[in-house]
Amino acid sequence: MIDAGLPVRAFFTTRRGGSSAPPYDSLNLATHVGDDPDAVALNRATVSAAVGGPVSFLHAEHGIGVAEVLEPGAEPPPADVLVTRVPGVAIAAIAADCVPILLHDAATGAVAAAHAGREGVYLGVVDAAVAALLDLRPQRAHGDLSASIGPSICGRCYEVPADMRERVASRHPTARSETPSGTPALDLPRAVETRLGELGFADVVRHMACTAEEPSLFSHRRDGVTGRIAGVVMCGVSVR
Asked: Is it true that the peptide bond before 23 is cis, omega within 30 degrees of 0?
């Protein structure tokens, strides 16, 4: 587990410490990638034990949909952002190259977990996640917002067609990147970090490991058939 660096219990998983067989070895947390369902259930139980309660995992749609989770372990509808203000509720965003984001609002204790893929970043999933947190605030409430950006594919490795790069960069200029050979690429974690700064986040932790370069992480771009890591956060359990 990688400590997310937030003031509540939060971490990012790696591919180690689970029950899945290759090519999902071993802590795959996704149910949609062809892995043995019993192994995934064991892996999710391992993560739930680590965070201290049942985890609600999002089902990404590569958009900007938001779902609020009100009970521990509740099954959310498909969405790319989960949010909760209920103490003891744990939520998680899964990814394998896309950007998992964890957010915390000190004003309410509310937390969010977001999946930021290429299309989601373009459409505004970061804004949707922040808006979902702020919508839970009572009037005139104030407090610091903090964020943690998990491991994801870096701007050196995420090669894309030039028109795709320019489409995303038209809204998020810092997403524009290139590979070592000079071909067009996207730097989604940098775009996410920039957007969080624009939205007023002074406390942003960015984990720099690239999923395509680091063998301890899952990468769809590198491996094709593979598992998924998760960013996990629990509401109301202070660690700072």
From this structure: yes
Helices 188-198, 125-135: crossing angle, 10 deg rounding = 40
How confident is the model over 160-195, as pLDDT tens digits?
A: 999 999 999 999 999 999 999 999 999 999 999 999
- Cα dist. 4→7, 42, 107, 206 in Å? 9, 23, 19, 9
Q: Which two tokens stand for residue 139?
A: 């009037």
Q: Quick count: other Cβ atoms within 10 Å of Cβ 73? A: 14
pLDDT single digits (tens) 19-76: 999 999 999 999 999 999 999 999 999 999 999 999 999 999 889 999 999 999 999 9
How many Å apart are CA 93 and CA 150, to the nearest integer? Answer: 10
> How many Cβ atoms from other residues are within 10 Å of residue 76's Cβ?
20
Q: Which residue has the tokens 């802590």?
A: 27
What is the domain class of 2-234 according to CATH? alpha beta
Find, among 114, 103, 9, the residue nearest to 57 by Cα. 114
DSSP bridge pairs for 160: none
DSSP code of residue 210: B
Q: For residues 60 and 64, what is the distance between their CA atoms, to the nearest angstrom?
A: 9
CA distance 98 to 229: 10
**Helix (H), strand (E) at residue 119:** helix 118-123
For the chain, the domains span 2-234
Helix (H) or strand (E) holding 43: helix 37-51
Could you give the percent of the chain with pLDDT greater than 90? 89
pTM surpassing 0.90? yes
